[in-house]
Structures are given as C-alpha cells and as structure tokens.
Amino acid sequence: MFSVGEYVVHGNDGVCKVEAVEPMSGSGSDRIYYTLVPVYTTGSKLFVPTDSTKVITRAVMSKNEVKKLMDEWEDIELLSVENDKKREEVYKAALRSCDCRQWVKLIKTSYQRNQMRLKNGKKVTTSDERYLHMAQESLFGEVAIPLEMTRGEAEDYFIGKVESKKKKDKKSKSAKK
Of 70, 2, 76, 14, which Cα lies nearest the Cα of 39? Predict the structure, then answer.
C-alpha cells in the first residue's frame, strides 16, 4: 500500500501524488481508497480503491532506477510491429503497460520510423507523432520526480546522459580495435 505524500504512476493519468488513504466518506463501505492528485493536470483528483486491479498503479522510479534505465537505453529493443494496421494497437498497449521500458521501446520505435519516413521523402504520420509525444510525456514526467526537475529539464538531462554514454561507448569500441 502506498503512503500519503508518495508519488505513483496511475494508468494514463501519469504521475500522481497520494493525498489520502482512507475510506470514501459517505460510502458506507469499509473499502479503502487512495486520493490521487495528478501532478501535471491541475484541478483534478482521482479516487481509486487500494485493492483495484483495473488500472496499474505503481511507485515512481527511484534515482537509481532512472540511472539504470539511462544506462540500458541503447540495449532496449524496438517494439515488434507486425504491420501498419497493428501499429496503433501495439503503441496503445505499450502506453497502458505503465512500464518505462515499454515507453522507451515506443519512443525508439516511433522516432526511428519517423526518421526513416523523412529520409524517404514521406511525411511523419499523425499516429506516430501522437504516440511518441504521449510516451515522452509519460517517461519524462516520471523521471522528473526523482530527479527533482521539471518534465522539460528531465527530458534534456536524460537525453543528454544517453547521448554522452553513446559517445563514450563508441570511443571505447574504437580504442579496442
């Protein structure tokens, strides 16, 4: 069970702060609810049963988990998409998973696909652009919490670290040859 003051990721609502853990007033039930306040959406509250399994609710990553994810970025595979008709279904499943590695897969897959389309003189699809944006919002919104940054600062920091690791890995591979 999560405690008051903790940050959690709750389904498509993203990062939320646990404001209360208590029975719903006036419900006449013993069921305990989380009162969640979405961090990036003002003026809303969610009331979620603590025993609910309908939507994934998990703790936000720690600083060490963020560092590990940055270190693993290059090794995380792309999403497997059988054909363009299934693409949106695969992207939706990755987002709904509330799994950071799935979000990274979606970001990498969509970004690579966008670059390939542009290279071939084609436009970026609205669907790819939309899901890329949603995955970035989810991932960097979460990363911002343990790093104590804004979402934009977290994105810049995260991408900067991944890029610098790539350069360092390339140099070390060249030195070994």
Answer: 14
Report the pLDDT averaged over residues 146-151.
Answer: 95
State whether the Cα torsion 10-13-15-18 is positive or negative: negative
Contact 80, 89 (CB under 8 A): no
Most confident of 73-87, 89-103, 154-168: 89-103
Residues 6 or more apart whose Cβ sits within 8 Å of residue 14: 38, 39, 40, 41, 137, 138, 141, 142
Structure tokens at 122: 């084609």
Short-list 142, 111, 109, 133, CA closest to 124: 111
- The reported pTM is 0.87
- Model confidence over 20-52: pLDDT tens digits? 999 877 666 788 999 999 999 989 999 999 998
C-alpha dihedral sign at 159, 128, 10, 151: positive
In DSSP notation, 49-100 reads: ETT--SS-EEEPPPHHHHHHHHHHGGGSPPP--SSHHHHHHHHHHHHHTT-H
Strands (E), the chain: 7-10, 14-23, 32-38, 46-49, 57-59
